[in-house]
Amino acid sequence: MPRDITEYLREAVARGGSDLHLSPEAPPCVRINGAIQPIDDESLNAECVRNLILDTLTEAQRATLEEEWELDYALQVEGIGRFRGNVHMARGNVEAAFRFITQDIPELETLGHHDVVRDFCNLRRGLVLVTGITGSGKSTTLASMVKRIADTRSGVIITLEDPIEFIFHHSSSLIKQREVGGDTRSFPRALRQALRQDPDVIVVSELRDLETIRIALTAAETGHLVLATLHTPDAPQTIDRLVDVFPADQQPQIIAQLSSSLEGIICQRLVPHADGRSRVLASEVLVPGHGIRNCIREGKLEQIVGLMEIGYRDGNRTIDQSIAALLEAHIITREEAIFHSRDRKTFEAPPQDARKPKSIWT
After folding, report:
1. Is 356 left (phi over 0), alpha (psi -120 to 50) or beta?
2. pLDDT digits 0-9 by tens, 83-115
3. Where are the beta strands (DSSP E) in the chain?
4. pLDDT tens-digit readout, 130-157
5. In this structure, are strands 225-230 and 201-204 parallel, antiparallel, or unpaired?
6. Facing residues of 87 across strands?
7. Is the peptide bond before 163 cis (omega within 30 degrees of 0)?
8. Which percentage of the chain shows pLDDT scores above 70?
């Protein structure tokens, strides 16, 4: 017999899972260290899945789901914790995924980030992006950065989220958390208003559209520190994505803004540990110096990786350099190194091969 939704969520958390998936004609499944595992042997029918999901929604949320056919929302479950839910339609049936959000915001150092990411938190202006695929830990990194900023300086931090995930508490800084759909109509509208709310730091949970990107660049250019996430796999593609979303006639202005206001990009991946019981962070970090800013202005993005490889003293590192360090420390397997690297041929070579990336992040 199907259990209550809270029982499934409780078991998912107890097993150390990051996500619970509910789909018709399949058992409830949980993602543990990147792998999907069933919670029960019994599959759920479409009506059961629908009822389980609808029980978590308010009347207003149900109305939005009926109109839009999909919904992002936050779910607080007594005695279990907080979840980010996404309800959607698939072949005419209601399905959902629930991401567990720990409320203990970790310190940056415990996540495996290098010191340069901590340095980004000391910036007073500019744009810093945290990127990666879904499930790569972007929200956790962003929350850790916000916590460090709030604990180490006096100011006003405004977060624009859809939905609100981590709950922050006022410390040295005043933190105002605004949720799209609950506190504001849209990211662009909230971002425009944020500029009138005396912010020192603006946090955008995701740069989704042209107008949000445009206003975020303007905010970064006019004396605010803007932190945001983007679904891109590496630094050059992040820059390309930011520019390419604009019409051709607007791109020269955007390129000029980006080349002057961009202060950092953190592209992260969670790679299975060699022990098979956990995942570790591999990251590409771009700190734009004079050469990289020129490449952005001139559209020579293919040269950025090379400049990052030789610019490690400024804090730059490529994903392959990060993976090489993990491989040399026997933290990940060669198979995972090959799968997650940019240049797979490098890691397919024997360890003594001279082409192997220099390990500089041990």
Report:
1. beta
2. 999 999 999 999 999 999 988 999 998 999 999
3. 19-22, 29-32, 35-38, 70-77, 81-90, 93-101, 126-131, 156-161, 174-179, 201-204, 225-230, 262-272, 279-286
4. 999 999 999 999 999 999 999 999 999 9
5. parallel
6. 71, 96
7. yes
8. 96
pLDDT band at 1 (very low <50, low <70, confident <90, very high): low
Residue 229 CA to chain centroid, in angstroms? 5
Structure tokens given for 178: 């605004």
Q: Domains (ranges, CATH) in the chain?
A: 5-101 (3.30.450.90), 108-317 (3.40.50.300)
- Which residue is listed with tokens 């030789």? 310
Contact 316, 307 (CB under 8 A): yes
Strands 35-38 and 29-32: antiparallel
Residue 103 confidence (pLDDT): 85
CA–CA separation, 165 vs 75, rounded Å? 9
Q: Which of 227, 236, 229 is nearest to 309 (CA)?
A: 236
| CB-based burial label for 76 (10 Å; 0-12, 13-18, 19+) | exposed
State residue 119 phi and psi, 5-degree precision: -65, -35
Q: Cβ atoms within 10 A of the Cβ of 277, count?
A: 10
Alpha-carbon distances, residue 15 vs 12, 20, 38, 103, 316 (angstroms): 5, 11, 11, 17, 37
Q: How far is CA 125 from CA 78, 252, 299, in A?
A: 39, 22, 24
- Find out whether 271 and 279 touch, Cβ atoms under 8 Å: yes
Query: Would you say how long the chain is, in residues?
Result: 362
Exposure of 155 by Cβ count < 10 A (0-12 exposed, 13-18 middle, 19+ buried)?
Answer: middle
Range 112-151 burial, b when 16+ CB lie within 10 A, else e: bbbebbbebbebebbbbbbbbeeebbbbbbbbbbbbbbbe
Q: 235 near 304, Cβ under 8 Å?
A: yes
Dig out the tokens for 294 from the structure. Answer: 């020129």
Q: What is the 3 state secondary structure string of 75-138?
A: EEECCCEEEEEEEEEECCEEEEEEEEECCCCCCHHHHCCCHHHHHHCCCCCEEEEEECCCCCCH
